[in-house]
Amino acid sequence: MFSIPVHPLRKTIFVRLIVMYLAVILPIISLGVYLYNWSYHNASQEISKNTLIQLDSYLENLNREIQWLEIQQFDILQDNELRKVAFTWGVMDNVQRKSSMNYMVHRLTSIKNTSNYIKDIFIHIITIDKTISAGNAVQDFDHLKYEYILSGIQGNERRLIKKEDSLYLSTSMMGVNNVNEPFAVVQIEFDTEELKAALDKINLYPKSGSFLLSEEMGLIVVAGEESPHIKESYRNAVNRSIDIMNLVDVEGENYHIDKAYSEEMGLFVVSYLPEEVVSRPLNKFSNWALVFAFTSISALIIYAYSTYRLVHRPLLLLIQGFKRMEKGHLDMPIKHEKTDEFGFLYDRYNKMLIRLQMLIDQDYKQKMMMQKAELKQLQSQINPHFLYNSFFILNSLAKLEDTERIELFTKMLGEYFRFITRNGDNDVLLVDEIKHARTYTEIQNLRFSRRISVQFDELPKEMERIKVPRLIVQPIIENAYEHSLEKMSDQGLLLVTFEMHDNEFSIIVEDNGDTLSDDDIHKLSERLAMKEDNQELTGIINIHRRIELIYGQGSGVFLSRSTLNGLKVMVRINLEKENSDV
Asked: What residue stretches are annotated with the HAMP domain (predicted)?
């Protein structure tokens, strides 16, 4: 598995490519959704518009039919034969009565045959207690029906009356003697089946239906497929504001409502249509939209996978290679079989590794070999003055026959020469290096114990296991004795201390000598900072270059004025530099 780079995921090229793809595809998907909604809205409006035209036409035809029937009613009431029967029935003989009745029945039948909406037509004559109809001719007067119709006429300006499941159109003519009661009432009973058949012609779509309703009488005619819940919902809908189109939820299914209203008749005609019928023409578009969405998602997945495999993963492989290079692993080339642009980059990366290895062999290893040679030279440069003084001390101790001190001195001298002359590993533990330096100061203390005092601090345990090059502390102490402390007429002081700060460790050697001026110290510091290989190699420069080569920039030997007024030499080791550069 490839690890994610240090950079946040949102800043990777992979994520940016995916975002770019989404920026291209999402507007297309949004446009498709907008077109679908726009088409659905237009289809709904178009269906509603056509339905409203049909509803208005239905109401207009029904209104004309009712107006024509009302004219016929008034014509009947103005008929002389009806008045003759109503007012002179008692003086007429049987022949006259029969002739008049036949005339009235014939006229009613003629009117009934002129309209399919008429189921029957009645004349209620109160003065003779008779009812004449086109269907049943002459029959006894129906007082209950008359009273119901009469109450409906008096309270209804539009003269449409509903009784149970029947619809009537009635008109009357007041008598001469009694102005409060009509002498005759003409009643037309509508054929609800014909009304339903005419209303059903509006229902052009499957599962659609329509209703004819009155403000005063409620539901009159129902046509089409419907449920009681739908009828009840639409009955409530007519009491609301009259909109061009409403959407009503009935038992979890949406229905479109279109309504038309006749102010003259006080009638609503309401048409309902399931929403699925409206959206059915768009189903093919919807299916294609789903196919498009599925294709887009599949394309996104394929694009993401291809981008990851062809771009992101090869980039991660290259980034990992550079990370290994930063850690100093130059023997791990990128193995690949690619022939594309990444293959070119991998080849150049591998060649760069080879080139770096060659440069290291020519530069770093060469410098290390040179440093080893310098270390050998340093080891071989046993100070004759120190050796002479050592034998002089032995001679003095022998004359005094101080065997105990002779034994101690020879032991320290043996450890000293064994450490500087051994040819083992060039790197030693800091605890061993400090032990060697302490041995040297103890040897010197036998010579100068009266006029040179030494303060040598204990090495902190945190610093004991640090690996350092050999001979980085003792030569500095030797310089302090040789160039400063031995020449002092006053009491000399040598101070060796240690400091720690995070991953930085320091070994500090100070003296109170007065042989070096500030300008001398500054010149020595400049020589340490110089990188020329041809400069004269003194002990301190040798130590500085070896430490800097191993631990990197920031580590090495640093000179300054001591608080004791002499020279302060600080050997600084930065382990962070070692981990990142070596």
From this structure: 309-361
Query: Does 195-282 match 21-189 at the fold level?
Result: yes
Residue 579 has a pLDDT of: 43
Angle at 332 between CA 328 and CA 333, to 5 degrees: 120
Domain residue ranges of the chain, discontinuous segments joined by +: 21-189, 195-282, 364-581
Write down the CATH number for the domain with range 21-189.
3.30.450.20
Name the 3-class secondary structure at 166: strand
**Which three-class secondary structure state does DSSP give residue 457?**
coil
Strand, helix or coil at 50? helix
> Nearest to residue 154, comparing CAs of 129, 166, 172, 168?
172
195-282: CATH topology: Beta-Lactamase (3.30.450)
| DSSP code per residue over 359-384 | HHHHTHHHHHHHHHHHHHHHHH---H
Rounded to whole angstroms, how far apart are CA atoms 397 and 94? 185
pTM for the complete prediction?
0.45
**Nearest alpha carbon to residue 506 among 448, 547, 453:** 547
Sequence-distant contacts of 33-37: CB under 8 A, at least 24 apart = 33/289, 36/282, 36/285, 36/286, 36/289
* Residue whose tokens read 């400090």: 434
Dihedral of CA 129/132/137/141: which sign? negative
- DSSP conformational letter for 280: G
C-alpha to C-alpha distance for 440 and 474, rounded to whole angstroms: 7
Closest CA to 262 of 66, 60, 68: 60
**Segment 91-117, tens digit of pLDDT:** 888 888 888 888 888 988 888 888 888
